[in-house]
Amino acid sequence: MVAHQSIYITTPIYYVNDAPHLGHAYTTVLADTFARYHRSRGRAVFFLTGTDEHGQKIEEVARAAATTPLAHADRVVERFRDTWKRLLIANDDFIRTTEPRHKAVVERFWQRLVDRGDIYLSSYEGWYCVACEDFSPESQVVDGMCPIHQRSLSRIEEPSYFFRMSRYERTLIEHIESHPAFIQPESRRNEVLAFVKGGLRDLSISRTSFSWGIPVPGDPAHVIYVWVDALVNYLSALGGTEGPNADTFWPHAVHLVGKDIVRFHCVYWPTLLMAAGVPLPKTVLAHGWWTVRGKKISKSMPATRVDPNLLAEDLSPDALRYFLLREVPLGLDGDFSYEALLSRTNSELGNDLGNLVNRTLTLAHRFLAGRVPSPGHPSELAAIAVAARDQAAAALEAYHPSRALDAIFELVRAANRYVDHTAPWTMAKDPDRAALLPTTLYELLETIGWLGRLLVPFMPAKGAAMLAQLGVDVLAESTLPAWPDRWGELPAGQSLGTPAPLFPKIDAAKSAELLNRWVAPELREDSSAPTGGAPSAAPPKADAAASLTFDEVQRLDLRTGRIEHAERIAGSTRLLRLEVDLGEGRRRQIVSGIAETYAPEQLLGRTVVVVANLAPANIRGTLSEGMLLAAGEAAVEALATVDGPVAPGTRVR
Ligand code: ME8
Predict the structure, then answer these.
(1) Closest Cα to atom 10 of ligand 1
(2) Which of 118, 133, 196, 229 is the most buried if burial means most Cβ atoms within 10 Å?
(3) 102, 132, 265, 266: the active-site residue
(4) Which atom of ligand 1 is nearest to the CA of 269?
(5) Nearest of 576, 644, 617 to residue 652 by alpha carbon
(6) Has residue 546 got a pLDDT over 70?
């Protein structure tokens, strides 16, 4: 449970160099889901998103478009606002860094740092990447190029104000070490700690070679470094540290960010706040990247662009949100596939959830004249619903939305089994069971009410539609639908709404049509093939006859690994959880389907061959970071090993 009953949830403020893509949608949907969940628990929530409009990058894009930076920003910001509306994002505020309210707070913030003696004038000489809006350490520069964006760096030699970041190195290390919730997940926390322990240098925080930014107070030849300007947005949206909302919401902040901007949020931001004498935010929560065929979705890579607007329009915003939240555990990277989106929509949303609602409502109209019956004794569904609710709450408090959805869909599946085994349509004709029919349907209707309330944070429109089909006047509830509390609250006698499919089935022809609309022609699997086959954006399917190039084989990172620990995974006859030393200074956890061939104790100390660069996956709720090679067709017959002693982590080629 959150100790404090108010919570401030933020997304990064996005650059207005181009329209939002799926990556931006992901962070914003995560933040909206957490915000809606906390609101449904009756907590005070302030949810902020916005746009980052200053800096060299925006100035350059505007110049290329023969317009002014502000005119450019005015145009692009509308695309962000439209997208958030389409994705049912209910933010409490939207901040633009070009607004006077922001500028005023940035200027005061700067002055505080000056007053503390933490800003001094010197000169900067080094490399700068405009795409990163970041200085590139000499050690990372290869042939004058940015290693992330593969674009040439600018050599900068100019006077610059510096922030005495080095002063705060010790205090930052102490803060991170004594506040485990500050940087999540833990892997990011360890990275940041290692970075800070490597030594903090003072930070160049002003530029003179362009002018699109907030002028340095008292020295307008300089503009304030865009990251300092941008980070302060989290305070300026509250009206500054003395602002009307600051008392309630600062420092109860959870900053949601992608892993690309962890350093800015976990090193620059906290040291700047320390210097200004402002308490640090409670949490920086970093998620992984969405990729397309292994490449990060990014504005500068048109081939990876996935338009969330199109997907939300063609499916529903709820289906897209569900997919983003369910597909990848928060913190890991995920490869996006249109097929996986369609498949989850059809199976989990259409077949499992949609059918449950539809058949229950249809039965209630047929046998109960469309009214909620009186409740009888609670069935097994009541206990399952309480467990699902409590697991979902615990998962959301710990920022694991995919786990929360898993728990909620346990209830969906249990309710479908309940329909199957009670078979209410046979009850009316069976004199021994006819009296049980109303109670049975009550249990199902109440389950749908609970599901609607549990799902509203994830799928606001469909959750509300489920409640509306039960005759709950969603709009009349004082706030938005509340998290479920007591079993049996659906009032007897209430008129049910008309059943309508929540997620209409997408058949093969419709899928082909949608893929045609979504996938750019150059990205289709076989763009030269005669028409007829459904185009696909999924990774190429293995073709028995196809041979791999040498480069393709080289992409496989095979390594020797020593098994340090092995145990069975409860509830599975096939799976073992292994801890394997790959010479990385930490053990990798690998889930392996070899339990029918090997007992855990047989494996300890063995050297095996591991696919080390397999994308991490969640198997039965356990993170698996690699795969063991083994011989055997359907069943594992023997593990692949090496013929002689080698150190863990040795390359196998
Ligand atoms: O960095 N997968 O803005 P930005 C997942 N203005 N998330 C992604 C993503 C992907 N492939 N691509 C982008 C900036 N994101 C600064 C922020 S905050 C004070 C200033 C998401 O437009 C993710 O949240 O480059 C990432 O951190 C953010 O968009 C970067 O957005």
Answers:
(1) 23
(2) 229
(3) 132
(4) 19
(5) 644
(6) no
Entry pTM: 0.81
Cα–Cα distance measured from residue 535 to residue 258, given in angstroms and rounded to the nearest whole number = 30
* Three-class secondary structure of residue 88 per DSSP: coil
Q: What confidence tier does 475 reach under pLDDT thresholds 50, 70, 90? A: low
Contacts of 584 (CB under 8 A, 6+ apart): 649
Helix (H, G, I), strand (E, B) or coil at 97: coil
The pLDDT tens digits for 122-173 are 999 989 998 889 888 887 788 888 877 778 888 889 999 999 999 999 999 9
Measured from the Cα of 258, ligand 1's closest atom is 27
Residue 346: pLDDT band by 50, 70, 90 thresholds? Answer: very high
State yes or no: pLDDT of 443 exceeds 90.
yes
Q: Which residues line ligand 1 (CB under 6 A)?
A: 12-15, 23-24, 26-27, 52, 230-231, 233, 257-258, 260-261, 289-290, 296-298
Which 3 state secondary structure label does DSSP give 391?
helix
| Backbone phi, psi, residue 566, to 5° | -145, 135
Compute the distance from residue 293 Cα to the ligand 1 centre, in Å. 19
pLDDT at 535: 33
Q: What is the DSSP string of 583-645?
A: SSSSEEEEEES-TTT--HHHHTT-EEEEETTSPPEEETTEEE--EE-EE-SSS--EE---SS-
- Is the bond preceding residue 491 a cis peptide, omega within 30 degrees? no
266 is an active site residue: no
Please give the mean pLDDT across all residues of the chain: 91
Q: What is the pLDDT of residues 238-265, one digit of tens each?
A: 999 999 899 999 999 999 999 999 999 9
CB 254 within 8 A of CB 7: yes
Q: Measured between alpha carbons, how far is residue 196 from residues 173, 257, 268, 295, 541 in Å?
A: 7, 19, 11, 28, 44
